[in-house]
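Re-run with default settings, no changes from the original entry. Doing this only to confirm the output is reproducible before filing.
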Amino acid sequence: MKKLRHKEIGGALGLLAGTTMGSGIGFLLSWHSYNLIVLVSLFGFIGLAAGRWAGPRIVFKEFP
């Protein structure tokens, strides 16, 4: 159960980081409307997948 919780937290943080990065890149490129929505969604999905993968492996290591 503990490992599943780490995946959920990792996924949430990954989604937050991915959408923030996508939004920042869209702002720097001065994109609007549909292009921006696609970019933020794409980065959000990538961040979600990366967070769910990295959550139990890297971020939340147990301390002895």
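DSSP finds two helices and no strands in the chain. Residues 2-28 form the longest helix (27 residues).
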